[in-house]
Amino acid sequence: MAAYFRRGSGGASFAIQCVSWLSIIALLLTASSWVDRSPLHEAAFHGRLLPLKTLIAQGFNVNILTLDRVSPLHEACLGGHVACAKALLEYGAHVNVVTIDGLTPLYNACSSGSVACVGILLEHRADPELETQLAFPLHEAVRRGHRECAEILIAHGLDIDKEDPNFGTPLYLACTYQRSDCVKRLLELGASVSYGKLRDTPLHAAARKSSEEIVKFLIDYGANVKHKNMDGKYPIELAAPKSPVEQALLVGEGPTSLAQLCRLSIRNRLGNPCLQLVPRLHLPERLKEFLLYR
Predict the structure, then answer these.
(1) 111 Cβ partners below 8 Å, 6+ apart?
(2) Which of 128-132, 139-143, 241-245 has the lowest mean pLDDT?
(3) How many CB atoms are closer than 10 A to CB 135?
(4) Rounded to 5 degrees, what angle do the CA atoms 172, 156, 123 make?
(5) Domain covering 160-261+279-294 in this structure, CATH number
(6) Measured over all CA atoms, what is the biggest interatomic distance in the chain, rounded to whole angstroms?
(7) What's the predicted TM-score (pTM) here?
(8) 3-state secondary structure at position 26
C-alpha cells in the first residue's frame, strides 16, 4: 500500500496543481464580472445620481453591459435607487434586458423590495412575465416577503395564480417560506387556495412548515383539508403529531358554518375581477367587511 502511494505521489501532485489552477481560473472569472464594470455601473450601484448624470452627459452608453450582461439599470434596481433607475430609463436604458443568470431589472427591484423601482419599471413597460430560468418577479417578491411589490404587480394585471414550474403559485411559495403577511394579502386579493405546485396545495405547504397561523388563514378561505397530494397524503399527515397545526386541521375537518359557506360561495361567484367591486355594493358595511375578511 505504501509503495502504491509512493508511485501515485506524482499523480497526486499533478491533481493538486490542477485544483490550484482551477481555483485561480475561477477567481479570475469571478473577478472579471467586477473588472469590466463601468463607472456608470458603479454610480448606479451606489445610488449616486449626480455622477451618473455626469457620466451620461460625457457619452457613457446607458446600455453598457458587463460580461455577465449586467446593466447599470440592474444595479440601480438591486439597490432600490429609484432616482438613478428613472434617469437611466429616461436616457433610453433597456427595461427588459436579461443577465446570463436570468435576472431582469424588475426581478432585482422585487428582490430588493423597492416599490418605487417596481412602479417606474412597469411604467416603462417592463414585462413581469418575461421567461427566464429564475422565478417570475411576483414569486421573487413573495419569497422575500415584499408584500407591496407583489400588490403592485397584481394591480398591474399579473395573474395572481401564476404557477412557476419550480416554485408553484405565489400563494404556495408564500406558505412555503411562511410569509404570513403575503399569504393574507394574496388571499384577500382572491388567490385560489386550491392551486399550489402540481397536486400539492398551499395547505400542504403550510402543514409541512408547521405554520398554524397560515393553516388557519387557508382553512378560513376554504382550503380543502381532505385533498391528497401526489404522494397520496392529506395535509394533516404532514403536520407534526399533537401540534397546534394538527389541531387546526382537525378542527377544519368539522362542519363549516352556514355564514362561512355563504361568504365563500359569494366570493367564488364574483371571482377575482369583481372582488374590488364589493365596497360599491348596496349592502350594510358589516356585510361588506365580512365578505372582504376585514
Answers:
(1) 78, 140, 141, 144
(2) 128-132
(3) 22
(4) 130
(5) 1.25.40.20
(6) 93
(7) 0.82
(8) helix
